Amino acid sequence: MLWGKTRTTHISNDAKGDLFWITSLRFHWTEPKNLSQNYRMAFFNHNLRIPYALCTIGNHVYYARYFDILEVARGEFFRHLGCSCLQLQETGIIFPVVGVELKYLKPARYDDVVTVELCVTELTRLRLTFGVRVLNEAREVLVQGLTRHGASTGVVSRGAVLHAGAFDDGCCARL
Questions:
Q1: How far from 107 is each of 44, 104, 140, 171, CA to CA, in Å?
Q2: Which fold, 32-174?
Q3: Which regions in the chain score pLDDT beneath 50?
Q4: pTM exceeds 0.85 for this model
Q5: Which residues pair with 147 in a beta bridge?
């Protein structure tokens, strides 16, 4: 992984299809593993109207509520693939959050319609990582970052590893 400083923000592919995600915090070069061509570098978009319950008295989304917004978008992402998080859990696969890195650039406010963009940047037998951005209707980036998830068999243990065929059936086969 390469690191460096920059002031521009965009996500794009180069000629080989590798993801270059440039943020104001760092430069990431990531080559996703085990992703099918259908979903490699594809963005999933989920639109959401900000409810009053997520806002502070100052009429902006409380910083920790973005975790809830991202959780809803991830759930819709798996539904888009053909199964819910509950269906995954029933097959013995869960992806608990093990790390979040977010940069808050502008506030979202009550009744704003935002778009949450998700992109799978890593999928292995040990982890799943999403690149995330929250955009307003003017397509300005409000929040950007990533969420890291451990891949687990659902059994409470440290260092659980999914079996080799875990992604062969169901919606995970479409990743």
A1: 22, 8, 11, 34
A2: Thiol Ester Dehydrase; Chain A (3.10.129)
A3: 1-40
A4: no
A5: 100, 130
